[in-house]
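Lecture notes, continued. The same structure-token format from the folding unit now serves as the input rather than the output. Read the line below as a description of shape only.
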């Protein structure tokens, strides 16, 4: 690598995504800047704030205040149990009613067309709608309709969007996989079954989808639960510590300039 600009692909992982904040902080402290950004699911949510100029510290303050009550609501839809419209409201309250193409850093978010199975790359249009679509866990959240497409969580098709990052024009590709060291527990309810099934399927495909990455950061989040939003500070620290280790290791072997 001949410069300090990197592209970063932030993967999905529900509440574990707060670790992305620590990863971004580590990247900044290592003297690097993010040239392009792609995100799936919670990675799209964190990426949206970062691409529109929020610092890791500012994003962490928002993450600390998150609870399932202020980002979800009951849904009357026949397609779901809940709605994630409050996710979109949160984006608008903090960033305004922005379009993706207005971001300070070139940004793309991944969703899945649940009618066709196609990967949908969202690079233009409503930022809030795109975040809602990318974070729309199928069977739990109501699908988001954009144009004629019925969209759900992008993790089904590209959970760590390295290929999308390359399509954006990034030269040096860094991926963040939140699920690599995930430990599964016996499900206690239908939500647990759906979430476990979903992440088990995704885990099988991530290695294939990230072969083009120059560097993968895989924080050890095995002691955290996907749905626990009360551990934002600890998740941020874990993401930061593990990212720093990976960045230093990459420098030592010549994958990154010192």
């Amino acid at each position: 690598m001949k410069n300090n600009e990197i592209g970063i692909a932030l993967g999905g992982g529900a509440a574990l995504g707060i670790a992305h904040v620590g990863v971004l902080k580590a990247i900044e402290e290592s003297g690097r800047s993010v040239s392009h950004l792609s995100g799936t699911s919670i990675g799209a949510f964190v990426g949206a704030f970062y691409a529109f100029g929020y610092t890791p510290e500012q994003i962490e303050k928002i993450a600390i205040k998150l609870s399932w009550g202020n980002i979800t609501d009951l849904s009357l839809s026949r397609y779901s149990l809940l709605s994630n419209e409050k996710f979109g409201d949160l984006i608008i309250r903090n960033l305004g009613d922005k379009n993706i193409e207005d971001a300070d850093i070139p940004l793309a978010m991944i969703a899945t067309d649940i009618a066709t199975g196609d990967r949908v790359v969202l690079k233009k249009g409503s930022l809030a709608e795109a975040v809602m679509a990318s974070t729309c866990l199928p069977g739990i959240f109501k699908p988001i309709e954009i144009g004629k497409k019925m969209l759900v969580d992008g993790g089904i098709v590209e959970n760590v969007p390295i290929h999308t990052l390359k399509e954006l024009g990034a030269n040096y590709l860094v991926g963040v996989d939140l699920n690599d060291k995930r430990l599964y527990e016996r499900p206690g309810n239908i939500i647990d079954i759906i979430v476990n099934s979903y992440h088990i399927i995704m885990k099988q495909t991530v290695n294939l989808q990230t072969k083009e990455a120059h560097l993968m950061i895989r924080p050890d989040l095995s002691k955290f639960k996907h749905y626990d939003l009360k551990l934002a500070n600890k998740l941020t620290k874990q993401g930061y510590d593990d990212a720093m280790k990976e960045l230093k290791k990459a420098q030592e072997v010549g994958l990154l300039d010192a």
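Point for the exam: The beta strands are 5-10, 33-40, 73-74, 82-83, 107-113, 119-122, 144-146, 149-153, 173-176, 215-217.
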